Every structure is written in structure tokens, then in C-alpha cells.
Amino acid sequence: MRSGLLPLLDFVPPGMRVMADRGFDIQDLLIKPNLTLNIPPYKGKRAYLLQEEVICTQKVAAVRIHVDRAIGRVKLRFHTLDRHILSSTFGSIDQFWTVCCLFGPLINDEVR
Questions:
Q1: Across-strand partners of 36?
Q2: Distance between CA atoms of 66 and 37, rounded to whole angstroms?
Q3: What CA–CA distance (Å, rounded) separates 5 from 99?
Q4: Residues forming a β-bridge with 17
Q5: pLDDT value for 1
Q6: Cα–Cα distance measured from residue 60 to residue 21, given in angstroms and rounded to the nearest whole number
Q7: For residue range 33-47, what is the model confidence (pLDDT) as tens digits?
Q8: DSSP for 42-107?
Q9: Are the beta carbons of 38 and 20 closer than 8 angstroms?
Q10: pTM reported for the whole predicted model
Q11: Exposed (0-12), middle (13-18) or buried (19+): which is 108, by Cβ within 10 Å?
């Protein structure tokens, strides 16, 4: 996997949950570090979700909104990510995003 996910999983404490969208089949990657995949349920060919699945979806959405807001704050603060990205920098974009996420909250808006 070239996304850089595997090395990051080493820092997640055992027993934690990893949130992903539907379609990300990464459950097998989470077995060794003893992590649980948390994806929203989907109805598939059924007409509706089961009551337990609706409750699960609501719980995931309550946490996911905070993740989406944090990503939005990083995107607003670092407008470099709004521009076209050269293909020669693809190998570094994960590191750049990580630095933005780590140091973004530490930067005073007046200094920017």
C-alpha cells in the first residue's frame, strides 16, 4: 500500500478504532495491530437499514463531523493545497499534509 497508512498504524494503540469510508477494504491490515475498522453500514440490496445499523450510523456521524471539520480547517489555513500539484511532488504530498495537520493548530493566525 503506497498511501502511508501502514507505518501510521504502528502509532495507534491496540484496541482503538480506525474510521474509513465504505469501500475501503482494509480490515485485513488491522488484524495484526489489533485495531477495529469503523465504517458506516450500508443497506446493499435491502430497502432500508436495520435499527442497529441506523444507531451505528448516527454514532459514526457524530464523530465523523469533527474529523471533517478538522480537515476543513487545515484546507482553509494552508491554501497551497488549493493549487495544482505537480506530479513530481506526489511522493512528498503525504508528508506535507502531515506537517500541515501537526503544526496548523500551533500557528497563530496573526503570525500567518
A1: 17
A2: 18
A3: 15
A4: 36
A5: 47
A6: 11
A7: 788 888 888 778 888
A8: --TTSSS--HHHHHHHHHHHHHHHHHHHHHHHHHHH-GGGGS---GGGHHHHHHHHHHHHHHGGGS
A9: yes
A10: 0.57
A11: exposed
